[in-house]
Design a protein that fits this description.
This protein has helices spanning 22-33, 71-75, 96-105, 164-175, 193-199, 205-208, 245-254; strands at residues 12-18, 36-39, 47-54, 57-65, 86-92, 109-116, 121-127, 133-139, 154-160, 178-181, 186-189, 221-226, 235-241, 258-264, 268-274, 280-286. It is α+β, with helices and mostly antiparallel strands and 288 residues long. Strand 6 (109-116) and strand 7 (121-127) form a beta hairpin.
């Protein structure tokens, strides 16, 4: 039996999206990434939550009202929680209550206190001092994304902010993160995460990243801090791996979404895209 992937405290561990029309969103992401979905909530409740799976493994979540919102609300990009449809990022914590206290002590605010998600775990919704939402996950039965960094799976979550110094101060105090300026962006690291991966699900990580092509400490990386792009909003932004950027962007359009912009670097070809209900995310082709 394949060992389940676990996430030490402070590591981003899960992503999900809230949408006005859950079934329509499931159709879009199934067509784009090949996901299948399992219902995680019992029938008869007002809010549905689906677990997205890739090749039988948990990859993310999709939630929204049991009854789709009116067409006008969908056109406005309303998510299941009454706000704009968007992707959310979760940080793994050992104790949701203790982590909530650290967030408040560091200057953040609690939007939703620790809330049980059945037998899966407990979630918390918080905002950093700049008002940017991030979520916390105390895992019980559901440990976090079980497949990452392969086509169709979550790659990274990045913090897009124009106040990087203030953000770094908050996240260091709240989650123990370290930050390293590597020139093209600022890397977010959780010390010891690479060793955790090496001892569990990725025993060859240090050897694979021992060359000069990756920044020092990259095995501990969980994301990046980057400036806010023109006409974009600050916040936590989710990237998914794809085999080929242009083909993925074409599928987004065929499925009713849109392409916001594309970009190329020495390592990746990316496209920032928008799903039919308004959630923005990135698809990224690795050039290694």
């Amino acid at each position: 039996m394949t060992e389940q992937r676990t996430y030490p405290e402070g590591v981003t561990s899960w992503v999900d999206t809230e949408q006005a029309d859950v079934d329509a969103a499931a159709d879009f992401y199934s067509g784009l990434f090949g996901w299948t979905f399992d219902e995680a909530t019992p029938p008869g409740v007002p809010f549905r939550y689906l677990i997205a799976r890739l090749d039988g493994q948990d990859v993310g979540g999709l939630g929204g009202p049991s009854t789709p919102a009116a067409p006008a609300a969908q056109d406005a990009g309303s998510g299941g929680g009454g706000g704009a449809a968007r992707w959310h990022t979760y940080v793994a914590v050992d104790d949701a209550v203790a982590a909530t206290g650290r967030v408040e002590e560091a200057g953040g605010a609690v939007v939703q206190p620790p809330t049980a998600a059945g037998e899966g775990g407990r979630s918390v919704v918080v905002r950093d001092p700049q008002g940017l939402e991030v979520r916390l996950w105390e895992a019980r039965r559901r440990l976090g994304s079980q497949v990452t960094n392969v086509p169709g799976a979550w790659n990274f979550s990045d913090l897009h902010t124009d106040e990087p110094a203030a953000a770094q101060q908050f996240y260091t105090r709240a989650f123990g993160w370290e930050f390293a300026d590597v020139g093209f962006a600022t890397m977010i690291r959780v010390p010891g995460y690479g060793d955790h991966l090496a001892s569990t699900t990725d025993p060859g990580i240090h050897e694979r990243q021992s060359g000069a092509t990756v920044p020092p400490g990259f095995a501990d990386a969980i994301g990046w801090v980057v400036p806010v792009a023109p006409d974009a909003e600050p916040g936590w932004h989710v990237t998914f791996t794809v085999a080929e950027r242009d083909a993925a962007a074409d599928r987004v359009v065929r499925l009713g979404g849109s392409v916001v912009r594309t970009g190329d670097s020495d390592w990746t070809r990316t496209a920032v895209v928008c799903d039919p209900q308004g959630a923005v995310f990135t698809v990224s082709q690795f050039l290694g």
